[in-house]
Structure formats: structure tokens, C-alpha cells
Amino acid sequence: MNEKSVRNSWGLLLIGAFKFICGLLLVGLGIGLFRHLDRDPVEWVDHLARALRIDPDNHYVHGAIARVSGIRPDQLRAIGIGTFLYALMYLVEGTGLLLRKRWGEYFTVLATGFFIPLEVYEVIRRVTALRLGILIINVAIVIYLIIQVLKGRAEDKAKATRS
Questions:
Q1: Residue 138 and residue 144: Cα distance in Å, rounded?
Q2: pLDDT value, residue 27
């Protein structure tokens, strides 16, 4: 890598670290889901709120309880499996970017870009600052990575013609 490539890769390392950390957090969430399959989800949310010292009468706690109250153990298991698969995707993306592998850039463009239509749909369905922020960040990541991939391909072609 020349000096310019190393300087430009800081963005890749930042995105890679973010993806890797998100993957680890999702693994933790998946483990937590599987550890609590036999418990009542309402009891679990109430326990979590108390452990985090959140007022159990809080509007958000009540909203979370309302959302999980109808979840069956088989649905919770499916959510846990999905969480692990999503974590795996994030860990692969993060590892590829942290190791500065070209496949990591391609994989992250594809994986992140794949979810953008769903994120657009969710923003259109109900605009929230969080949904809009996630959409903007993911679009920016995809654009940045496409630019990096194109620059990398141009550098590879230039190296090949010099050789």
C-alpha cells in the first residue's frame, strides 16, 4: 500500500471496527435470547428494566412489554437464529475491512446495500429520526465503499501496467 492508500483506509478501518463491534453485540443478544427461551418474555423485559434501573412504569418499558407479550418460544428461537446470522454477516464484514481485504469491501457494499430498500420502506412507512439516521449512514457507507473499491481497482490496474 502506498501512502495515499493507507490514509484512505482509515475510513475502512472505522467502518470495519463499527461492523465488528455490532457483530459482537448481536452475538451477545443472541446468546441472551437463547438463555431465556424458557422464560416468559414479559418477565424478562421487566427483569431487564429493573437491572438497568429503569422505572418499570416507564412508557418505553410498557411498550417493550406490549411488543413481547405475544411472542412464543418458537418465534423467540427464530429471532435468536436470525440474530446470530445477522451477527455473522457483521463479523465477516468487519473482519474483511479490518484486514483491508478487497473482498471485505465488496461484501460490505453488497450486504449493506441489500438492506437499503427495506430501510427506505421503513422510513416511508413511519419516519423517525433513528430510521432516517440509519438509512443516511448506510447509504453513506455504501457510497464511500464503492468509491474505495473503484479507487482500488484503478490502483490495481496501474500496478499491473507498471509491471
A1: 10
A2: 96
Do 111 and 140 contact (CB within 8 A), yes or no? no
Alpha-helical (H) ranges within the chain are 3-35, 41-51, 59-68, 73-98, 102-125, 129-162
pLDDT of amino acid 5? 47
Range of the domain at 148: 101-156
pTM, rounded to two decimals: 0.77
Exposure of 60 in the CB half-sphere (CA atoms within 13 A) = 4
Average pLDDT of 72-98?
Answer: 91
18 plus 50 within the same structural domain: yes
If asked whether residues 16 and 82 sit together in one domain, one would say yes
Which one of 55, 77, 99 terminates a domain? 99
Please compute the mean of the pLDDT values over residues 55-63 and round it to a whole number. Answer: 72
On whether both 115 and 70 belong to a single domain, the answer is: no
Mean pLDDT of 124-148: 93
Burial (CB count within 10 angstroms: exposed 0-12, middle 13-18, buried 19+), residue 66: exposed
